[in-house]
Design brief:
The protein is an alpha/beta fold. The chain has 7 helices and 13 strands. Bound molecules: manganese (II) ion.
Protein backbone atom coordinates (compact mmCIF):
# COMPACT_ATOMS: atom_id res chain seq x y z
CA UNK A 1 0.00 0.00 0.00
CA UNK A 2 1.20 3.52 -0.81
CA UNK A 3 0.60 6.07 1.92
CA UNK A 4 0.99 9.84 1.94
CA UNK A 5 1.55 11.25 5.43
CA UNK A 6 1.09 14.97 6.11
CA UNK A 7 0.57 17.20 9.14
CA UNK A 8 0.29 20.83 10.17
CA UNK A 9 2.71 20.87 13.10
CA UNK A 10 5.72 20.69 10.79
CA UNK A 11 8.19 18.13 9.53
CA UNK A 12 9.96 17.84 12.90
CA UNK A 13 6.84 17.24 14.99
CA UNK A 14 6.92 14.31 17.43
CA UNK A 15 3.39 13.27 16.42
CA UNK A 16 4.39 12.94 12.76
CA UNK A 17 7.42 10.79 13.55
CA UNK A 18 5.43 8.56 15.94
CA UNK A 19 2.74 7.97 13.32
CA UNK A 20 5.26 7.39 10.50
CA UNK A 21 6.96 4.80 12.68
CA UNK A 22 3.73 2.78 12.82
CA UNK A 23 2.54 3.43 9.26
CA UNK A 24 5.61 1.76 7.74
CA UNK A 25 3.95 -1.47 8.95
CA UNK A 26 1.09 -0.80 6.49
CA UNK A 27 3.05 0.05 3.38
CA UNK A 28 5.33 2.52 1.60
CA UNK A 29 5.17 5.85 3.40
CA UNK A 30 5.88 9.22 1.77
CA UNK A 31 5.94 12.27 4.04
CA UNK A 32 5.11 15.80 2.92
CA UNK A 33 4.92 18.29 5.77
CA UNK A 34 5.30 22.03 6.25
CA UNK A 35 8.84 23.22 7.04
CA UNK A 36 7.44 25.19 10.00
CA UNK A 37 4.32 24.80 12.11
CA UNK A 38 1.18 25.77 10.19
CA UNK A 39 -1.55 24.87 12.67
CA UNK A 40 -4.98 26.42 12.05
CA UNK A 41 -4.10 27.07 8.39
CA UNK A 42 -7.28 25.31 7.27
CA UNK A 43 -7.23 24.60 3.50
CA UNK A 44 -5.22 27.75 2.70
CA UNK A 45 -3.06 27.53 -0.43
CA UNK A 46 0.06 29.50 -1.31
CA UNK A 47 -0.56 31.53 -4.46
CA UNK A 48 1.84 34.49 -4.28
CA UNK A 49 5.08 32.62 -3.57
CA UNK A 50 6.93 29.68 -5.08
CA UNK A 51 6.85 26.45 -3.11
CA UNK A 52 10.07 24.68 -2.21
CA UNK A 53 10.06 20.96 -1.46
CA UNK A 54 13.29 20.05 0.31
CA UNK A 55 14.07 16.32 0.72
CA UNK A 56 14.80 15.49 4.35
CA UNK A 57 15.96 12.46 6.29
CA UNK A 58 13.61 11.24 8.98
CA UNK A 59 14.59 8.76 11.69
CA UNK A 60 12.03 6.31 10.22
CA UNK A 61 12.39 4.05 7.14
CA UNK A 62 9.98 6.00 4.94
CA UNK A 63 10.35 5.98 1.14
CA UNK A 64 10.86 9.75 1.00
CA UNK A 65 10.14 12.86 3.01
CA UNK A 66 9.90 16.52 2.02
CA UNK A 67 9.81 19.70 4.07
CA UNK A 68 7.65 22.11 2.11
CA UNK A 69 7.55 25.89 2.38
CA UNK A 70 3.77 25.99 2.39
CA UNK A 71 0.57 25.11 4.16
CA UNK A 72 -0.69 21.62 5.02
CA UNK A 73 -3.01 21.73 1.99
CA UNK A 74 -0.07 22.79 -0.22
CA UNK A 75 1.89 19.81 1.11
CA UNK A 76 -0.82 17.28 0.33
CA UNK A 77 -1.61 18.76 -3.08
CA UNK A 78 1.98 19.02 -4.30
CA UNK A 79 2.76 15.52 -3.03
CA UNK A 80 -0.28 14.09 -4.83
CA UNK A 81 0.39 16.06 -8.02
CA UNK A 82 4.18 15.97 -8.33
CA UNK A 83 6.21 14.34 -5.61
CA UNK A 84 4.74 10.86 -5.21
CA UNK A 85 5.50 8.23 -7.86
CA UNK A 86 1.79 7.31 -8.05
CA UNK A 87 -1.55 8.15 -6.46
CA UNK A 88 -1.49 6.75 -2.91
CA UNK A 89 -4.05 4.36 -1.49
CA UNK A 90 -4.33 6.38 1.71
CA UNK A 91 -3.73 9.96 2.80
CA UNK A 92 -3.10 10.27 6.53
CA UNK A 93 -2.53 13.47 8.48
CA UNK A 94 -1.15 13.81 11.99
CA UNK A 95 -0.69 13.06 14.73
CA UNK A 96 -1.73 16.58 15.58
CA UNK A 97 -0.68 18.25 18.80
CA UNK A 98 -4.12 19.04 20.20
CA UNK A 99 -7.63 17.86 19.32
CA UNK A 100 -9.58 18.59 16.13
CA UNK A 101 -13.20 18.39 17.22
CA UNK A 102 -16.46 20.12 16.43
CA UNK A 103 -16.02 23.51 14.67
CA UNK A 104 -12.25 23.25 15.01
CA UNK A 105 -12.44 20.89 12.06
CA UNK A 106 -12.90 24.01 9.90
CA UNK A 107 -9.67 25.63 11.09
CA UNK A 108 -7.53 22.54 11.33
CA UNK A 109 -4.62 22.19 8.95
CA UNK A 110 -4.41 18.53 9.93
CA UNK A 111 -7.95 17.80 8.78
CA UNK A 112 -7.44 20.06 5.73
CA UNK A 113 -4.47 18.00 4.48
CA UNK A 114 -6.59 14.86 4.81
CA UNK A 115 -9.41 16.54 2.87
CA UNK A 116 -7.02 17.10 -0.05
CA UNK A 117 -6.89 13.31 -0.25
CA UNK A 118 -10.68 13.03 0.02
CA UNK A 119 -11.09 15.60 -2.79
CA UNK A 120 -9.13 13.17 -4.99
CA UNK A 121 -11.33 10.23 -4.02
CA UNK A 122 -8.73 8.72 -1.70
CA UNK A 123 -9.53 7.17 1.68
CA UNK A 124 -8.16 9.71 4.10
CA UNK A 125 -7.61 9.91 7.83
CA UNK A 126 -6.77 12.67 10.29
CA UNK A 127 -5.32 11.71 13.67
CA UNK A 128 -5.15 14.15 16.59
CA UNK A 129 -4.24 13.84 20.27
CA UNK A 130 -6.16 15.85 22.87
CA UNK A 131 -2.99 16.93 24.65
CA UNK A 132 -0.89 20.04 24.01
CA UNK A 133 1.87 19.24 26.50
CA UNK A 134 5.46 18.54 25.51
CA UNK A 135 5.42 15.11 27.17
CA UNK A 136 2.25 13.91 25.41
CA UNK A 137 2.47 10.21 24.55
CA UNK A 138 2.30 10.10 20.75
CA UNK A 139 3.35 6.44 20.70
CA UNK A 140 0.13 5.41 22.46
CA UNK A 141 -1.89 7.72 20.21
CA UNK A 142 -0.19 6.16 17.17
CA UNK A 143 -1.19 2.70 18.46
CA UNK A 144 -4.81 3.82 18.61
CA UNK A 145 -4.60 5.61 15.28
CA UNK A 146 -3.21 2.54 13.56
CA UNK A 147 -5.75 0.28 15.24
CA UNK A 148 -8.60 2.51 14.02
CA UNK A 149 -7.21 2.80 10.49
CA UNK A 150 -6.66 -0.96 10.20
CA UNK A 151 -10.21 -1.65 11.40
CA UNK A 152 -11.74 0.97 9.09
CA UNK A 153 -9.90 -0.53 6.14
CA UNK A 154 -11.55 -3.91 6.90
CA UNK A 155 -14.96 -2.26 6.58
CA UNK A 156 -16.60 -1.21 3.31
CA UNK A 157 -15.78 2.46 3.94
CA UNK A 158 -16.31 5.00 1.22
CA UNK A 159 -13.37 6.61 -0.50
CA UNK A 160 -13.37 10.36 -0.80
CA UNK A 161 -14.05 10.78 2.90
CA UNK A 162 -12.00 11.88 5.89
CA UNK A 163 -12.14 9.69 8.97
CA UNK A 164 -11.37 12.16 11.73
CA UNK A 165 -9.75 10.28 14.62
CA UNK A 166 -9.22 12.01 17.97
CA UNK A 167 -7.43 10.25 20.83
CA UNK A 168 -8.03 11.39 24.44
CA UNK A 169 -4.94 12.91 26.03
CA UNK A 170 -5.18 10.79 29.16
CA UNK A 171 -3.17 7.90 30.55
CA UNK A 172 -3.42 5.33 27.70
CA UNK A 173 -4.50 2.70 30.25
CA UNK A 174 -7.60 4.80 31.02
CA UNK A 175 -8.90 4.92 27.43
CA UNK A 176 -12.34 3.29 27.30
CA UNK A 177 -12.39 2.22 23.64
CA UNK A 178 -13.61 3.66 20.35
CA UNK A 179 -16.83 5.56 19.65
CA UNK A 180 -18.15 6.44 16.18
CA UNK A 181 -19.27 10.04 16.49
CA UNK A 182 -20.77 13.03 14.74
CA UNK A 183 -19.31 16.50 14.80
CA UNK A 184 -20.30 18.18 18.09
CA UNK A 185 -21.48 21.68 18.86
CA UNK A 186 -19.41 24.00 21.03
CA UNK A 187 -19.38 27.67 21.89
CA UNK A 188 -16.09 29.52 22.34
CA UNK A 189 -16.46 32.21 25.01
CA UNK A 190 -14.11 35.16 25.72
CA UNK A 191 -11.83 33.93 23.00
CA UNK A 192 -9.40 36.87 22.72
CA UNK A 193 -7.15 38.11 25.47
CA UNK A 194 -6.93 41.89 25.29
CA UNK A 195 -3.50 43.09 26.37
CA UNK A 196 -1.39 46.21 26.16
CA UNK A 197 2.14 46.22 24.73
CA UNK A 198 5.09 48.15 26.30
CA UNK A 199 4.24 51.14 24.07
CA UNK A 200 0.67 51.40 25.32
CA UNK A 201 -0.93 49.90 22.23
CA UNK A 202 -3.69 47.30 22.40
CA UNK A 203 -3.26 43.85 21.04
CA UNK A 204 -5.30 40.67 21.08
CA UNK A 205 -4.32 37.05 21.42
CA UNK A 206 -6.67 34.20 20.63
CA UNK A 207 -7.36 31.74 23.41
CA UNK A 208 -10.43 29.84 24.28
CA UNK A 209 -11.92 26.86 25.88
CA UNK A 210 -14.88 25.44 24.09
CA UNK A 211 -18.06 25.16 26.10
CA UNK A 212 -19.88 22.03 25.00
CA UNK A 213 -23.39 23.00 23.82
CA UNK A 214 -24.60 19.57 22.67
CA UNK A 215 -23.85 17.02 25.40
CA UNK A 216 -25.06 14.00 23.39
CA UNK A 217 -22.73 11.02 23.90
CA UNK A 218 -22.37 10.53 20.14
CA UNK A 219 -20.75 13.97 19.72
CA UNK A 220 -17.01 13.88 19.01
CA UNK A 221 -15.95 16.20 21.82
CA UNK A 222 -18.23 14.52 24.37
CA UNK A 223 -16.78 11.12 23.50
CA UNK A 224 -13.17 12.29 23.80
CA UNK A 225 -13.84 14.00 27.14
CA UNK A 226 -15.43 10.71 28.30
CA UNK A 227 -12.20 8.87 27.48
CA UNK A 228 -13.15 7.36 24.13
CA UNK A 229 -11.20 7.50 20.88
CA UNK A 230 -13.57 9.35 18.53
CA UNK A 231 -13.94 8.52 14.84
CA UNK A 232 -16.10 10.94 12.83
CA UNK A 233 -16.66 10.26 9.13
CA UNK A 234 -16.52 13.59 7.26
CA UNK A 235 -17.39 14.39 3.66
CA UNK A 236 -16.35 17.31 1.48
CA UNK A 237 -19.94 18.16 0.48
CA UNK A 238 -21.21 20.61 3.12
CA UNK A 239 -24.68 20.92 1.56
CA UNK A 240 -27.54 20.89 4.04
CA UNK A 241 -29.81 18.50 2.15
CA UNK A 242 -32.86 19.23 4.32
CA UNK A 243 -32.64 22.91 3.37
CA UNK A 244 -31.77 22.00 -0.20
CA UNK A 245 -35.13 20.19 -0.41
CA UNK A 246 -37.01 22.90 1.47
CA UNK A 247 -35.60 25.77 -0.57
CA UNK A 248 -36.02 23.81 -3.78
CA UNK A 249 -39.78 24.14 -3.27
CA UNK A 250 -39.50 27.93 -3.02
CA UNK A 251 -37.55 28.76 -6.16
CA UNK A 252 -39.18 32.08 -7.17
CA UNK A 253 -36.33 34.37 -6.11
MN1 LIG B 1 -1.36 21.41 14.67
Amino acid sequence: MQILLCNDDGIGAAGLIALARRLVELGDVYVAAPDTERSAASNALTLAHPLRARPVDLPVPVKAAWAISGTPADCAKIALANLMPQTPDLVISGINRGPNLSVDIFYSGTVAAAFEGAFKGIRSFAVSLDNFSADACYEAAADWGLRCIRRLLELPIEAGRVYNINVPGIDPQQINGVRITRSGLVDYRENYDHRVDPYGRSYYWIKGNPEIVDQSPECDIVAVKAGYVSITPLKPDLTDFRLFELLGDAKDF
